[in-house]
């Protein structure tokens, strides 16, 4: 059972008139088609009981199993870094799991280059148009690849016509965040960086430098983020409701965004 702190929802209700606020679900469904990293344990579910009990009431229960890094999930700072340490999933302070959000749209660049890596120039161009990214911001990158999530090979960018094993990690082609962009976001002291692809490093990364840069500074990652196409460039608040897994290197999460001005599609 997932426990969401009551104070978070109290603060939510005080900040936003929920009846009029627009809430966007940034989370993919969890089912047999859930995307996990090819070499990781895939999500499985077993129906334990689904019937009327001898006492006459209905009862359902399932067992689930999965990698911490499957579906829409958090990468904790201890996941990949240059030196041992960093917050585990359960260590991340609750106040750092929520914050004002911005969306950096690199869908045009990604449509031309499936291995595109967000540049520092992309970040600076965003700031020139929409304002400086401030401390405590949660940055979401929109590549427009989220629309491919239900098509596993296309989502991973595997070349067509190759008979590849399901755990292949050599033939992945999808956008990510470049190292200089990551370094700039560290300077901005953001809380988290998310993307609508399987990894914050692009698919051809072998050293996972962006992970190491961000997570090494206790900046968490979000991968397989859904519905980023529905977000404006800024003017929304992100809530990363990850399970409080003690010692976790990540974990499944329910990510939502609440627009500051639901009647507007931009600033």
Question: What do these coordinates show?
Answer:
The protein is α/β, with parallel strands linked by helices. The protein has one domain (6-36, 68-259): Putative cyclase (Glucose Oxidase, domain 1, 3-Layer(bba) Sandwich), CATH 3.50.30. The protein is built from six helices and twelve strands. The chain is globular. It starts with 5 loop residues before the first helix and ends in an 8-residue tail after the last strand.
Number of helices in the DSSP assignment: 6
Q: Can you identify the CATH class? A: Alpha Beta
Taken together, the total number of domains comes to: 1
What about the largest sheet?
7 strands, mixed, barrel
Structural class computed from helices and strand pairing = alpha/beta
- Elements, N to C (H/E): HEEEEEHEHEHEHEHEEE
Mean pLDDT: 92
Low-confidence stretches: 1-19
CATH architectural name: 3-Layer(bba) Sandwich
Backbone CA Rg: 19 Å
How many runs of DSSP E, i.e. beta strands?
Answer: 12
Percentage of residues in DSSP E strands: 25-35%
């Amino acid at each position: 059972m997932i426990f969401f702190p009551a104070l978070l929802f109290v603060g939510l209700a005080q900040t936003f008139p929920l009846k009029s606020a627009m809430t966007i679900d940034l989370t993919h469904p969890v089912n047999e088609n859930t995307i996990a990293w090819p070499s990781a344990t895939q999500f499985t579910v077993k129906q334990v009981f689904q019937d009327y009990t001898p006492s006459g009431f209905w009862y359902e229960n399932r067992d689930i199993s999965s990698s911490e890094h499957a579906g829409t999930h958090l990468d904790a700072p201890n996941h990949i870094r240059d030196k041992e340490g960093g917050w585990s999933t359960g260590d991340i302070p609750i106040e750092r799991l929520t914050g004002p959000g911005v969306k950096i749209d690199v869908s045009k660049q990604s449509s031309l280059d499936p291995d595109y890596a967000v540049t520092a120039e992309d970040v600076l161009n965003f700031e020139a148009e929409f304002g400086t990214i401030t401390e405590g911001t949660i940055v979401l990158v929109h590549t427009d690849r989220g629309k491919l999530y239900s098509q596993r090979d296309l989502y991973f960018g595997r070349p067509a016509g190759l008979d590849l094993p399901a755990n292949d990690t050599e033939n992945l082609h999808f956008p990510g965040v470049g190292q200089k962009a990551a370094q700039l976001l560290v300077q901005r002291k953001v809380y988290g960086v998310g993307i609508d692809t399987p990894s914050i490093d692009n698919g051809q990364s072998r050293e996972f430098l962006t992970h190491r840069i961000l997570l090494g500074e206790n900046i968490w990652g979000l991968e397989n983020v859904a519905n980023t196409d529905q977000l404006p460039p800024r003017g929304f608040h992100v809530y990363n409701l990850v399970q409080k897994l003690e010692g976790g290197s990540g974990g499944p999460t329910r990510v939502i965004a609440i627009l500051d001005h639901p009647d507007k599609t931009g600033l």
